[in-house]
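Researcher: Sequence recovery benchmark, item below. Answer with residues only.
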């Protein structure tokens, strides 16, 4: 037997064994810091490679209680799944348990990109929960950041199960990377080509050259710290503005003005456009390119003609585009109420992505099932704490009583929760997100 064939057989047997693996029963665990002391917590694995945490508030009973399934953000980690990842999520979203809801969150079976995979893992955890704790009165699905894309996909994948209405009664999408990987990540290809035009150090001229949509060669030893040093070398972004050279100031201005990102998020976005792009294009899409900037006209530099003549150009491969769309792009085929919350100055996921999602839902004829809210904040990972119980309450009122909330009604609920969770309600009931094309160069 040839070595290659033996490898394929071993891999096939390994995946077959994994597919037959049974999830372990949830094990009692001390709750992490921040979770109410009276809560009960559990950990486990789903038999497919994903780990999870579950938290039940004091006195929670399934026949009366509400379960919030949490789809986490990222995907910053591209390695194996870690139980610690789910623990971090539970700590951050302890507000869910404080507000009286059960919480369950999976790590997903591996790091890296895979929206449908993550939706499947989230649904698998829900079934584990029901098996061991009983079916809750209501089940809400909450997706944060990349997890909002996961939740929007899950809401469609499981809209019906075995010919019946699916398990999720309502969906909350916060700080969402919405619209699918193609539309959400186009600007990161723009960042790579504009950055390289300006700085010419990622890669350096004396290093192996590669198409920038690949992110980074698989055998590269470049670290995040080394990339940050290169960015700083070119732009001075980690220094106070007064300590930057004139050339650094000019370089930084060109990049952030053309790509339209805050300077504080430059290194973070480059990290995603490096290691996540490597994972997405080379490991998930067979080293094929789903991003296209062949006809994009970049604006915002001191010499746009020179910029557009000099940036590297790439054409997307239709097969890669189709595969990424199938995995990640929502179709708007929702059949339960959906609420969203997004900071208008989110530095990581542009607020304009909300418009992209709204267009998809309305095109599918389901606009009546979507209510979007916005806050006057410049954060991404976690917004004002009073927002979340207000949104859960509004969503349950919509599900249980048929009371579709207005943004103003959610403001009122949020203000009511400030006495408990702090004066941090910053909702803007009259705001509407601009079109995505007003932020990201159309193509």
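Model:
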């Amino acid at each position: 037997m040839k070595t290659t064939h033996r490898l394929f057989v071993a891999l096939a047997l390994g995946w077959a064994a994994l597919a037959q693996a049974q999830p372990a029963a949830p094990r009692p665990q001390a709750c992490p810091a921040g979770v109410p002391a009276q809560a009960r917590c559990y950990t486990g694995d789903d038999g497919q490679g994903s780990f999870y945490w579950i938290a039940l508030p004091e006195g929670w009973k399934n026949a009366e209680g509400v379960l919030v399934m949490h789809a986490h953000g990222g995907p910053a980690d591209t390695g194996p799944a870690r139980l610690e990842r789910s623990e971090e999520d539970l700590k951050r979203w302890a507000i869910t348990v404080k507000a009286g809801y059960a919480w369950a969150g999976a790590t997903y079976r591996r790091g890296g990109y895979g929206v449908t995979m993550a939706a499947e893992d989230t649904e698998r955890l829900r079934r584990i929960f029901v098996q061991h704790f009983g079916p809750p009165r209501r089940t809400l699905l909450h997706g944060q950041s990349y997890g909002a894309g996961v939740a929007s996909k899950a809401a469609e994948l499981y809209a019906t199960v075995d010919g019946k209405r699916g398990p999720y009664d309502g969906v909350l999408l916060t700080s969402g990377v919405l619209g699918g990987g193609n539309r959400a990540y186009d600007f990161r290809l723009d960042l790579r080509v504009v950055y390289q035009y300006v700085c010419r150090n990622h890669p350096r001229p004396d290093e192996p050259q590669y198409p920038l949509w690949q992110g980074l060669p698989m055998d590269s030893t470049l670290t995040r710290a080394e990339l940050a040093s290169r960015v700083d070398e070119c732009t001075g972004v980690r220094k106070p503005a007064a300590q930057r050279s004139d050339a650094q100031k000019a370089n930084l201005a060109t990049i952030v003005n053309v790509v339209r990102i805050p300077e504080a998020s430059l290194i973070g976005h480059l990290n995603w456009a490096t290691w996540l792009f490597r994972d997405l294009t080379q490991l998930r899409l067979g080293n094929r390119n789903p991003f296209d900037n062949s006809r994009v006209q970049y604006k915002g530099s001191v010499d746009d003609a020179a910029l557009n003549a000099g940036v590297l150009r790439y054409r997307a491969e239709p097969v890669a585009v189709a595969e990424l769309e199938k995995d990640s792009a929502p179709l708007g085929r929702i059949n339960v109420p959906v609420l969203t919350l997004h900071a208008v100055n989110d530095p990581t996921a542009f607020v304009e992505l909300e418009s992209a999602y709204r267009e998809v839902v309305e095109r599918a004829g389901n606009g009546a099932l979507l209510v979007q809210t916005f806050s006057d904040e410049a954060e991404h990972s976690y917004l004002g704490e009073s927002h979340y119980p207000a949104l859960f309450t509004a969503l349950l009122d919509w599900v249980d009583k048929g009371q579709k909330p207005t943004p103003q009604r959610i403001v009122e609920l949020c203000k009511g929760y400030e006495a408990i969770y702090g004066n941090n309600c910053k909702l803007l009931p009259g705001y509407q997100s601009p079109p995505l094309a007003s932020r990201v160069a159309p193509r």
